[in-house]
Amino acid sequence: MASKAKTDGGILETIKTIVYALLIAGIFRTLFFQPFWIPSGSMKDTLLIGDFLFVNKMAYGYSQFSCPFSFCPVSGRILGSEPERGDVVVFRHPVNGSDFIKRLIGLPGDTVQMKNGVLFLNGAEVPQVADGVFEETYEQQGPMGNLPRCENGPVGEGGTCTKSRFTETLPNGVSHDILNIDTNGFGDNTDVFTVPAGHYFFMGDNRDNSQDSRYGQAVGGVGFVPFDHLIGRADRIMFSSAGRSMLYFWTWRSDRFFKAVD
Fold first, then answer.
1. What CATH code is carried by the domain that includes residue 101?
2. Which of 11, 54, 75, 91 is the 20 to 30 A CA-CA neighbour of 30?
């Protein structure tokens, strides 16, 4: 009997340990950092498919969307801090409920327009400086098996896929890389967008391969994103794998481990 009681007590302690661990992990994820895996190439070359990072949820305060499954009993935003232009932000899509990651380009009240692939903010051209060529192998990437778009396409399987790279400097001095494939798509020539109060305008750094605020929600874009939909800021890549699975250790990108997100 003593042995059975000891066994039952051990099982109970194990269950309690697991429950406590899950509670601590849930609190940590809700209040501090949320893991995020990059599934697409819309933020190349800042973020690559297979990059793994933690999103800083303290950066902008907390809203309904700070909790898993949007269960936070919060109206609006508490302990909120305004994001800065140029931040790389994870946010909740206003329609389909998925998490997106893009760069913050337009603040409330800004006007945003693209002309021949060049960004204009509040009527002024945002300077771009040529910065060489971004190269990658034309092959399926990540668990979803996405194929990259190439400026030098069509490219055969295993060939070198290239895109022109530029350094763009935003009005607040934040500089970051952008990639260009062509200058004739809808996203390269747009109407003037005026960002409403309490909303933000986001774009991907891989400008010709990003469904972002340039595209309305009816066609798969995100449109203007409300402040309370912001989840957090991406500050640092913790791990990166170029393979179809993170278990393929020979595809790990060790040069991207603990790399700051600029």
1. 2.10.109.10
2. 11
